Amino acid sequence: MNVDPRTLGWLSRALTHEMGAVQQYLAQSVLARLWGDEALATKLRKEADEELEHAERLMQRLIQFGVAPSSGNLPPTRLGRSAQDLLAADRVLEIDAVRLYREAIVHAERMRDPETAALLESILDEEIAHVHQLDGMMNRQIEHG
Ligand SMILES: [Fe+2]
Ligand SMILES: [Fe+2]
């Protein structure tokens, strides 16, 4: 298969994002558990699983292209002193993801690679859902302290 190197670049960039997201949600889940906030810890742990699944799907596409998946340096984990801090940091992460996937989709479409575009679009939908989920969680935090 003739592989466009910039498509590989977008897939690798997305993989780095996802591995960074796994690291951040996992670390935040550990922190929330140390605070004794078991409900938040469980939610964040579930997010880490969802991001791991995104990484897995990107890896599959890279392997189909004949490339060994390898994420670059992971961005630093953002923690905080309260649930509100953590959720705000996660919202930044998810907005970055939405931006990244939108740009990657434009590229895949330009390269007439519908299979990669469809993969990226389905992950994009889930990242948009993550933003809405975080907004809901942040509103509940404000209402209930
Ligand atoms: Fe993700
Ligand atoms: Fe996400």
What key attributes describe this structure?
145 residues, single chain, 4 helices, Ferritin, binds fe (ii) ion, mainly alpha
3D architecture notes:
This protein is mostly helical and 145 residues long. The protein has a single domain (5-67, 79-144), classed as Ferritin, CATH 1.20.1260. It contains four helices and no strands. The protein has helices at 5-34, 38-64, 83-110, 114-144. Helix 1 packs antiparallel against helix 3 and helix 3 (83-110) runs antiparallel to helix 4. It is elongated. The mean pLDDT is 96. It binds fe (ii) ion (FE2) (2 copies). One fe (ii) ion (FE2) binds next to helix 3 and helix 4. The site of one fe (ii) ion has 6 residues, from helix 1 and helix 2.
